[in-house]
Every structure is written in structure tokens, then in C-alpha cells.
Amino acid sequence: MAQNSTLVNGWQPVIGLEIHVQLQTNTKLFSPAKNQFGEEANTLVDLIDMGLPGVLPVLNDGAVKQGIAFGLATNAEITKTMVFDRKNYFYPDLPKGYQITQLHYPIVKNGIVDVEGKQVRIHQAHLEEDAGKSMHDVYDSESVVDLNRSGVPLLEIVSEPDIRSAEEAVKYLKKIHQIITYLDISDGDMSQGSMRCDANVSIMRPDDKEFGIRAEIKNINSFRFVEKAINFEIKRQIKVLESGEKVEQETRLYDSVKDETRSMRTKEFANDYRYFPCPDLVPHEISEDLVKEVKDNLSELPEEKQKRLMETHNLNEYDASVLCADKSIANFFEEVAKGANAELAAKWIIGDLNALLNKNDISLKESKVDAANFSKLIQNISNNTISGKIAKDVLDEVWQSGEDVAKIIEGQGMQQISDEGELEKIIDKILTENISQVEAYKSGKDKLFGFFVGQVMKATHGKANPSLVNQILKDKLK
Ligand code: ADP
Ligand code: MG
């Protein structure tokens, strides 16, 4: 039997993800109401979204095109005929009493996603409408419903159970996030619910013929929680099975405060929903012309962008792939490189800027760093106005205040000292103050060179041009 590094105590975890992605259309899936996040409650609601009788849904072509784009990006089959079904259930945030979705004839089938060399299959991706949002903490004693989200188009992406660890699940999720943001079909913001993930988890012995019974953990809203929830669930199922009990097929919730999953309800079977084709929407044909149109207008995908950056900016594969992991970072790099040395820009984005973003756990968009200003920083490094060391201080200042790089450098007198005469004076003083070290150096203690450089840097508060300092010191210590 092949070695398998994803076993946990001799158990093989098996995971399939269902990812809901809110599409970035102007209007909702079946109504002319605006599709926008963060507006005042119940202001973006059409009669159709309220589920009033006598109104008819009209399919949003934009959402169809976005679904096709996802299918093309994952080498999937685009269906010729889509059928919308009603999934019937009662909940206060669903005034119609049913959700319009696609059960048997989804827009996209049989896709493939490459996750660091491993192929994860996509069973299907289907279009459906989002529900409204129940809110329990606005008033003390009553719950209220905001229907702004009702009818917002979702693409639900269902993977095959091909994933074998929590870590791999996160990588897959990040890959999907990368694809949808590159395609511009969603902002993929998990904290705002534009991308939400249900994780199906089971465990089996490596030589079992069949998968184990799975639990589905609903609505996990961050990459980190996906990893934690799955790992908790794997351990829980191991405990259950090793104590001779059975895993129940059920829906569970992840509690991020307690870092545990809890039973929500035992799994309802599909036919409980009494699915049937929605009589308000006839089967919808997708023409080859439409698929071609979407294909011709498809946004650049991560691999393509990476290749282009390597070619046009002479980047190595590693740097290009790190930059392209996040579309906003890759775009930022391209902006910066318009006016500054590309390799140096890549180095500073991948190193210092990424470190700041990670440490503060915010996105580039939320930060105070903009491309034009960052470009100035790189220019000032490459034309020797400031040293690399000082550049870190300037970047910190930009990070804090968003202040203009040129103003920071001037205002704080951070310009590098590249005036030979000025540096010579400073160096002469240091050498006369450290006669014994000079003698030791001259009698063979080469390592002391670093000491002299250090003294010059100290005296100039790190502003001396390092290569000039080296040159002058070498001359004077001959
Ligand atoms: P349902 O019809 O109940 O929604 P599906 O067969 O469509 O179930 O599967 C839903 C999700 O669960 C898919 O992402 C699939 O990969 C995953 N899945 C199915 N069986 C298992 C299993 N035994 N262990 C883990 N995940 C599974
Ligand atoms: Mg399902």
C-alpha cells in the first residue's frame, strides 16, 4: 500500500467542499433590484424578491455568462440546457417558501482544478438565488429579516470528495478564490459572505472500499476556520468510531470561539425538499455563440498572468507566482513597475510589503499604501537617494500615515549621503578616534572592516551610501 502522509492515527480523512460564491452582477438573479452589499436593510428589494404572488422571475444574462466563465476556467462542460428547480422549505428569510436552484441540469459539470499539482474534480457548479438574512441581535426581543440579499445570484461549486486533509481543503478553497477573483465574477470576500464554504468530512481506513459516513459543516466564513473546523471534525469522528459508535450523517455548525463543531440537525434527504422544475422559468438554452462570446472576453487567468509577468518583467517563476497568488497584489505590482525597476519592486512587494499585510492581517485595498507612492519608494532606492535600510523606515511611515514618499524623505532628512567629501570627513574622524583598531586591522585583523562600516553608519544614522563608504574606507586603510 502506498504511503499516505495525510493519514491521522491510521484514518484517511475524505473531504468534499460546497462553495457558495456571490456573483458580481448589477442586478439580482431574477429581479431588477440592485445587487449590492452594505446598503440600508430592505432597500434593495423588488416584488420578486419579496415573493409576492403574480410576479415572474426573469433570468439575469450576466449571471449566466459568469457561470460560463467559471466553467471555461476550470475546463468543465458547459451545459446546453439548464433547468431551474424549486427547492421547497420554510424559513423567515425565504418569503417565497422555495429557493430557485439547479438540481439535475446545472450550468457547469465535470471541471478540474489544479491544486499544487493535484487535480481536484468539480462535480458541478450551479446557479441559485441567495436567501435574505435573519438578524437576531438588532432588537432585544425580536428577530428581523433583511431581504437585500434575497435573490442575489450565487454560483454553488461542488467538488468531488477528492480532498484528503484540512490543509489541502484550504489550498483548494484558495484556488477557487483565485479563479473567481481573476475572472472578476466575485469579490470573494469571505468576511462579507461573498464566499462561503460547507465542508463535508468523513474518515475511512486506507484500504476500505467505501467512504465513511460524512458530516457537513455549514457556512464556514474564513480560510482559517475551514482548516480548524475540518481538523476538529476529523478528530471527533475518530473518537466516535474508535469508541465503537457510528458517525451520524448530519449537519453541524462550527463555533469559532470554542473551536468545535456542534450538531445542528440530522441530514434531511434531498427529496424532503420536494424539488420540481420551476414552472415560471422555461428550460434555458445556452448557445455555442454565447459560450464563444464569453471565451473571447475571458479575463486573464492566474497562470497566464504569471507567464506574462515573467516574460515582460524578467521575473523568476517563484517571484511571479507569489505575486500572482492574489490578483490585487499582481495588479499592484504592474502599476508600480510602470515607473520603477521591476525586479526591485517585486522583491519589496514580496518581502516587506507582504510582511506588513500579513502582520496586520489586512488586504492591500484596506491599507494606506498606493501603487504610485510605492513606486516612488522603489525609485528612490534604485537611484540611491535612500539606502535599503532607510527604505524600510520610509515604508513603515507610509504604512502608518499614507504620506507621500518624497515628503517623508525630505521632511526627515533621510536622503542618503553620497557626497564623497562629506563622507571622507566623517571617516577621517572615525579613524583618528579608533587608532588601536586601525593598527589591528593593518596588522591582519580583516574582520575589523565591518566595525568601521558600522561606525560610519552609526555616525550618519544609516544614511551613508554603503558602496561609497566601502570604497573610501578601503582606500584609507591601505
Ligand atoms: P447531497 O446530494 O447530499 O448534497 P452530494 O453527493 O451531492 O450530497 O455531495 C455533497 C458534497 O459532499 C460533495 O462536495 C461531495 O464531494 C461531498 N461528499 C460526498 N460523500 C462524501 C463522503 N463520504 N465524505 C466526504 N465528502 C463527501
Ligand atoms: Mg448539497
Automatic annotation (TrEMBL):
SMART domains: GatB_Yqey (SM00845)
UniProt GO molecular function: ATP binding; glutaminyl-tRNA synthase (glutamine-hydrolyzing) activity
Domain (Asn/Gln amidotransferase): residue spans on this chain: 331-477
Entry EC no(s): 6.3.5.-
Protein origin, superkingdom: Bacteria
Catalytic activity: L-glutamyl-tRNA(Gln) + L-glutamine + ATP + H2O = L-glutaminyl-tRNA(Gln) + L-glutamate + ADP + phosphate + H(+); L-aspartyl-tRNA(Asn) + L-glutamine + ATP + H2O = L-asparaginyl-tRNA(Asn) + L-glutamate + ADP + phosphate + 2 H(+)
Keywords on record: ATP-binding, Ligase, Nucleotide-binding, Protein biosynthesis
Listed GO biological process terms: glutaminyl-tRNAGln biosynthesis via transamidation; translation
Pfam short name (any one): GatB_Yqey
InterPro entries given in the database record: Asn/Gln-tRNA_amidoTrfase_suB/E, Asn/Gln-tRNA_Trfase_suB/E_cat, Asn/Gln_amidotransferase, Asn/Gln_tRNA_amidoTrase-B-like, GatB, GatB_C_1, GatB_Yqey_C_2, Gln-tRNA_amidoTrfase_suB_CS
Family annotation (NCBIfam families): gatB (TIGR00133), PRK05477.1-2 (NF004012), PRK05477.1-4 (NF004014), PRK05477.1-5 (NF004015)
Function as written in the Swiss-Prot or TrEMBL entry: Allows the formation of correctly charged Asn-tRNA(Asn) or Gln-tRNA(Gln) through the transamidation of misacylated Asp-tRNA(Asn) or Glu-tRNA(Gln) in organisms which lack either or both of asparaginyl-tRNA or glutaminyl-tRNA synthetases. The reaction takes place in the presence of glutamine and ATP through an activated phospho-Asp-tRNA(Asn) or phospho-Glu-tRNA(Gln).
Assigned protein family: Belongs to the GatB/GatE family. GatB subfamily.
Assembly, per entry: Heterotrimer of A, B and C subunits.
Protein's recorded name: Aspartyl/glutamyl-tRNA(Asn/Gln) amidotransferase subunit B
Organism: SAR86 cluster bacterium
Taxonomic classification: Bacteria, Pseudomonadati, Pseudomonadota, Gammaproteobacteria, SAR86 cluster
Gene of this entry: gatB
